[in-house]
Design goal:
The protein is α+β, with helices and mostly antiparallel strands. It has 4 helices and 10 strands. The strands form 2 sheets. It has a 6-stranded antiparallel beta sheet with strand order 1-2-3-10-5-8, with no helix packed on it. The protein has a 4-stranded antiparallel beta sheet with strand order 4-9-6-7, with no helix packed on it. It is elongated and about 75 Å long.
């Protein structure tokens, strides 16, 4: 994996093995063996290679960033508590699924004239709430915000809040939380 990453960066920068060998003082053969993951370079060798490729050392150690995760509508993680007026569906992977996302997006359905929770909740994460359908009040500390379809509210971490569906129809809300809390 390390060698593959070095090769990707080198080719992206249009540097040949011979050219990199001349600049690092390593033979092309040695560099080729590193790139094919046949041998593991020393830390000082990695530093030289990183310097020539003009990237920080950690760039070689990054995991593959192209880990797409498709979540089909019928495969979402759902949370529906008994005697609750709210349903949660996770649109992003959850930690329970073995993936640690950098944010979580939750689709919520809130029954008419009901609260998202018994009392205000807060967490060590920022949250953005977007109203897809209906009309909701967001009680944020001492303030109350009325949001209708298309409106959003950004909430800083650790501010107590909860949602009230003041309409006669099911409210649909999307919440993006970063870092994840569930």
């Amino acid at each position: 994996m390390l060698g593959k990453r070095i090769r990707e960066i080198r080719k992206h920068k249009k540097i040949s093995l011979v050219e990199m060998g001349e600049k690092t003082g390593f033979s092309s053969s040695y560099l080729s063996q590193i790139e094919r993951d046949l041998i593991s370079p020393s830390l000082s060798s990695l530093r030289k290679i990183a310097q020539i490729l003009e990237v920080p050392l950690y760039e070689f150690l990054k995991e593959d960033e192209n880990k797409e995760v498709l979540i089909k509508k019928n495969q979402r993680v759902k949370l529906e508590l008994p005697d609750s007026d709210i349903t949660y569906e996770f649109l992003t992977p959850t930690r329970l699924q073995g993936d640690a996302p950098n944010m979580e997006i939750i689709y919520m359905k809130l029954k008419p004239h009901s609260w998202s929770s018994e009392g205000p909740s807060y967490h060590a994460a920022d949250e953005c709430i977007f109203v897809l359908r209906g009309e909701v009040e967001i009680h944020l500390g001492d303030k109350v915000y009325l949001l209708v379809e298309g409106d959003s509210l950004y909430i800083r971490e650790k501010i107590p809040h909860r949602i009230y569906n003041k309409s006669n129809i099911m409210a649909e809300v999307m919440s993006c939380i970063s870092p994840p809390v569930y």
